[in-house]
Amino acid sequence: MKTQNNINVLVIEDNQGDYLLIKDYLEEQLQTPRIFHARRFSDAISFLNEENTQFDVVLLDLTLPDKTGEELITETVSLFPNIPVIVLTGYADLEFSVKSLALKASDYLLKDDINAASLFKSIQFNIERKKTTLLLEESEKRYSNLFQLSPQPMWIFDLEKYHFLQVNKAAIEHYKYTESEFLNMS
After folding, report:
1. Residue 71, exposed/middle/buried by CB under 10 A (0-12, 13-18, 19+)?
2. C-alpha 95: how far from its chain's center?
3. With contact defined as beta carbons under 8 Å apart, do 89 and 108 qualify?
4. pTM for the whole structure
5. What residues form DSSP beta bridges with 18?
6. What is the DSSP string of 105-161?
7. Tell me, what's the pLDDT at 144?
8. Are 59 and 86 contacting, i.e. CB atoms less than 8 angstroms apart?
9. CB 167 within 8 A of CB 155
């Protein structure tokens, strides 16, 4: 049974056979997916400049003609900072898969191990996780602003050692200590 979710997927994949397989998997699980195909990293950049489409997820092959590996992941994640980037690869390198996640890839899937259901599950999970992460980051930013921009001098300190951990701008202005001086005091 196909899900009604309409999602926009950017597939960055240079191998036509792999792309068609991914496309078939997506069409098997989704009612009307909008699938965009970039064969090179430079084509993905062109999609950002030309298309008026907001992508929900990026499926990224790890080896492209114009960019590969860590550099490819880092630049793709920076191009699409608010959407999940799922790495699809044929290389079963555990160390690099962990590194990919540290580089902020949302998931690392082996092409030989995926099927329509597992790809759909990964996409759905990573879209929801990205939404939750963005909400959490926004909440943290609001809390930080509430603390930093308060006109009342405020600080956070370690309850055991009584060392300052953080001070706001009002405390710095009121007590005439720099932030680093505060953080060296108890």
Report:
1. exposed
2. 19
3. yes
4. 0.77
5. none
6. -SEEEEGGG--HHHHHHHHHHHHHHHHHHHHHHHHHHHHHHHHHT-SS--EEE-TTT
7. 87
8. yes
9. yes
Task: Please report the pLDDT score of residue 4 as a whole number.
Answer: 57
- Beta strand pairing status for 57-61 and 85-89? parallel
Q: Is 138 exposed, middle or buried (0-12, 13-18, 19+ CB in 10 A)?
A: exposed
Query: In the structure encoding, which two tokens stand for residue 18, read together?
Result: 């792999």
Token pair 């909400």: residue: 135
- What is residue 59's predicted lDDT score, i.e. its pLDDT? 97
What is the CA angle 29-34-39, rounded to 5?
A: 105
Distance CA 162, CA 54 (A): 48
The pLDDT value recorded for residue 54 is 85
**Taking the chain (186 residues) in consecutive chunks of 10 residues, what is each chunk's mean pLDDT?**
74 96 93 91 85 85 92 94 93 88 94 94 94 91 90 93 93 94 91
Q: What angle do CA 176, 182, 186 make, to 5 degrees?
A: 125
Q: What is the reported pLDDT for 103?
A: 94
Supply the pLDDT for residue 93: 84
